[in-house]
Amino acid sequence: MELLVFGHSGARVLAFPASMHPFFDWEDRGLIASLRWHIDNGHLQVFCVDQVDHEAWYAWHRHPAERVARQVQYDRYLVSEVVPFTQSLNENPYLIAVGPNFGAYHAANFTFRHPELVGRLLGMSGLYDITRFTPGYHDDNVYFNNPVEYLANEFEPGRLERLRRLDVILAVGRDDPLLESNQHLSNVLWRKGIANTLRVWDGFAHDWPVWAQMLPLYIGGQA
Question: For a tag site, which of 28, 56, 128, 168 has the least CB within 10 Å?
Fold first, then answer.
C-alpha cells in the first residue's frame, strides 16, 4: 500500500481518495493545491492513503462476505499501520479524516469506528449507508462497517462520550442523489446527541473543483 505525505507539521490529515481512485488523486486533481497555504504554513500535514475498493465493495464478482472481509482488513491496516506511521512523523495529537465521494464513506467509517483516534471528520458528497453494496446479505461485518446502522444502535456510554467530542462536518450538493444519505446520517447523529454540521451547496456539487472549494472552508486545523 502506497501513500503520499504533504507538509511538515500541524494537524494530521488522513485523506481518502474517491471511489476506486488512486492515492495520488488528491495531488493530481487539485485538492492538495487548495490546501497549500495551510500546508506550507505548518497548519496541516496531509497523508493521502490508497484504497482497496476494487477488491472490496466494488468487487461485484465476489460474494458480499468476501468483499466486506476485505474492508475489515483495510480498517485494520489504517489502525495498525497508517495511524502509527503518521504519529512517527508528527506528534500532533489531532487527526482529521476527510474524503470526497466514496472516500467520505471511508473517512466516516474510520472516524465512527475509532473516535478515540480522530478529532474532526469532513465528508464531501458521501455515501453512508453501505447496504446498496450487499443486497440481500447481512452479517456482523456488514453491520459494523455501515455507519448509519451501528450508530443508530450505539448505547455504550464510553463510545457515545467519545463520539460526542467529534467535530463532524458533512458537505453535499442540493441536487446530488446522495443528499438523502447525508441527511440520514446527520439525523442519526443528532438522535444520539452527536453534534454535526450539514452544509448543502447549490447544484450538484459532486466534482473535484467543488471539493477543492469545500476543503479550505471546512477542514480547519489544530497546530
Answer: 28
